[in-house]
User: Fold this.
Amino acid sequence: MQLKRAFYIGRFQPFHNGHYSVINNIEKEFDELIIGIGSAQRSHEVADPFTAGERIMMIRHSLEDTDILHYAVPIDDIQQNSVWVSYVTSRTPPFDVVYSNNPLILQLFEEAGIETRTPPMFHRQKYSGTEIRKLMLEGEDWRKLVPGPVVDVIDEIDGVERLRNISRSDA
Ligand code: ATP
Ligand code: MG
Assistant:
């Protein structure tokens, strides 16, 4: 029997419990998962503080205790939507189905004739990258909103300190 592979893309700045629960909820629908690390070239920016490599670490350690076999593939922005799907598929293992809530991503894959599915949102107000980065900047508790291994990675790289520094101006 042929393996069924799924594709899930995000920026994962950082990888949080919403992403984790989506992956766990759809796990039975595929054999292997390809995780696209979007805007891979970005880091050290207020909306994109972590490097692709750091995001790969977050995901690898978070999925370590599951049965999910995944490939994390960095995907740089190309600013040319019309060829984006072939750009993605030229860099990833082959896949059969795309999971996303992003209307543009769904549109582009549907136009390319690739099956798409929209996973349900999981406490979107709480589990949101934007909200978590805001809590980090404000010195509030963000740790309960991400898998434990993500806390360890962010602590290892002094991620909160980095985010605070890059949010300051020289004025
Ligand atoms: P940001 O606020 O920085 O955009 P985000 O929480 O939306 O962060 P992304 O990396 O942009 O995280 O999301 C990747 C994918 O995961 C997107 O399709 C997004 O809609 C989805 N997603 C984000 N948060 C949740 C959640 N709480 N439940 C389900 N899906 C989510
Ligand atoms: Mg988002």
Remarks:
- The domain at 5-166 is CATH 3.40.50.620 (Rossmann fold).
- The CA atoms of residues 42 and 123 lie 27 Å apart.
